[in-house]
Amino acid sequence: MSQSQPLLTLSGVSKSFGGAQALSGIDIEFRAGEVHALVGENGAGKSTLGKLILGVHRPDTGMIHLDGAEVAIPDPAHAMRLGLVGIAQELSLMPRASVLDNIALGREVTRNGLVDRKATLAAVQAVMDRHDMRLNPAEIVGNLPMADRQKVEILRALSRDARLIVFDEPTARLATHQAKQLLGLIRALAAAGKAVIYVSHFLEEILEVADTITILRNGKLIRTSPRSAETRTSLVEGVTGQAFQNQFPPLPAVPADRAPVLKVEGLTRRVCLRM
Questions:
Q1: What 3-state class would DSSP assign to 109?
Q2: For 238-274, what is each residue's pLDDT tens digit?
Q3: Which distant-in-sequence residues (6+ apart) come within 8 Å of 126 by Cβ?
Q4: Residue 177: which residues within 8 A CB-CB, separation 6 or more?
Q5: Residues 6 or more apart from 89 whose CB is under 8 A from it?
Q6: Interval 70-112: pLDDT, tens
Q7: 91-84-16 Cα angle (round to 5)
Q8: What's the whole-model pTM score?
């Protein structure tokens, strides 16, 4: 875990929407080379925090520092110029365009005012090679499985010299083996010196991929800890504010002579269930 100056720091950041306080006095640091996970229930402020970093929202109060210097992030385009990019659950790709065109969008190599396809391809291929994420540049994105579409989104971020990448519920639409592959890619991005913010409600994934874990509850920061200091039980207790045992109280014993409410015999469903 890096002990150098944080790449990005939020100090006393608050954000409200109407009468709802989404974030309250948040102090948090994100470092290059780390996966920093944000954990909390729905409405805890995880996504709002990510959107403040990406310029989707602006804080009501507080400061944001990048490389130690205070910055304002008025919109996503400015965030992108600072190297702050996001990978959302709903990908922002052009499904009828090629992998090449999606990755190079807005950063095509030009010559005499025209796009140089050969040079653009070489630039995209170099990003794929550098990060060991290889796809067919000519393939239409809409024909790719979801896991490969996410690779396209990640490669587009990397082609824009991303320094910090926010992943918001990235495995929600992936099969288990695809989620494992993505977690491996995220670890590789951190190993390559990127700062990664990982937002998820899957606690097992958090414990597998994160270096640092921050728990949010009702818009407030509860604690930030190294992964080694957390367990599934401690995360559940931190997220809910209740002891783990209280989440699943023991069920009362059912008398043996009580009549069944539902009884199934000889049920068959091909492939899924056979009895």
A1: coil
A2: 999 887 555 556 677 777 778 888 888 888 776 554 4
A3: none
A4: none
A5: 168, 169, 170, 172, 173
A6: 999 999 999 999 999 998 777 788 989 999 999 988 888 888 8
A7: 85
A8: 0.81
